[in-house]
Write a structure and sequence with these properties.
This protein is mostly beta strands. The chain has three helices and 14 strands. A 14-stranded mixed sheet has the order 7-8-9-10-11-12-13-1-2-3-4-5-6-14. A hairpin with a 6-residue loop joins β9 and β10. The radius of gyration is 18 Å and the shape is globular. The model has no long low-confidence stretch (mean pLDDT 86).
Length: 208
């Protein structure tokens, strides 16, 4: 996937936004270049599935470390796995392949729970498009929401329907992340080296 989107990050009632040029290769590769009004890159971040990195052009520094949930949380304050981030930014439900589902209710939207994952999924019965996703975690014997995702603004791209609006909430922080896609290209050819910029900036890198 290649796309151009507005990204909005909300942290403790403080909102920041930027345009992002996104390149995604499932299951665990992503690159996001933050661009200003003059289309200059002011920051870039990504992962090849093994290592993740943050490039700050103004400081001429590349920060890099292992692609772990802990480092992702340090980089972007998101409480999820790399593969979850990649799937959700791609407009898809994580762990959906060959998943076994139980139907919970049949109201306005079909509601399913994953048998082997702490996930609930809501689907539009008219289109079978995912509209809401909730992942849970257990802490001190209590079931809590880890994150909630809403997919909306579906448009046809060829034979596929893609959600141009993706909204993620992390109730415990509290924080939220919103993607508003403006342009999308699916199944685009992607050079794998684009996810490994440390080969270019190694002399300026800082391990984390």
């Amino acid at each position: 996937l290649r796309g151009l989107a507005e990204a909005i990050l909300v942290e403790n009632d403080e909102e920041r936004s930027t345009d992002l040029a996104l390149v995604i290769s499932r299951p665990n590769k992503i690159r996001a270049d933050a661009v200003d009004m003059l289309a200059d890159v002011w920051a870039a971040a990504g992962t090849d599935g093994k290592r993740m990195w943050l490039w700050m052009p103004q400081k001429s520094k590349l920060y890099q470390g292992r692609a772990t949930p802990g480092n992702l949380k340090r980089l972007a304050a998101f409480d999820w796995e790399i593969a979850e981030l990649v799937s959700i930014a791609s407009g898809l439900v994580p762990d959906a392949r060959q998943a076994e589902l139980n139907e919970v209710t049949n109201d306005r939207n079909l509601h399913y729970s994953f048998r082997t994952k702490p996930l609930d999924l809501w689907v539009d019965p008219r289109t079978n498009d995912p509209v809401r996703l909730v992942r849970y975690k257990i802490e001190d014997g209590e079931k809590k929401i880890q994150y909630e995702v809403k997919f909306s603004g579906y448009r046809k791209i060829g034979d596929a329907a893609f959600p141009y609006n993706i909204d993620v909430k992390f109730p415990e922080r509290p924080s939220a992340f919103h993607l508003r896609y403006k342009e999308i290209e699916l199944n685009a050819a992607v050079d794998a080296s684009i996810f490994k910029p440390e080969t270019v900036w190694r002399s300026q890198s800082v391990n984390i």
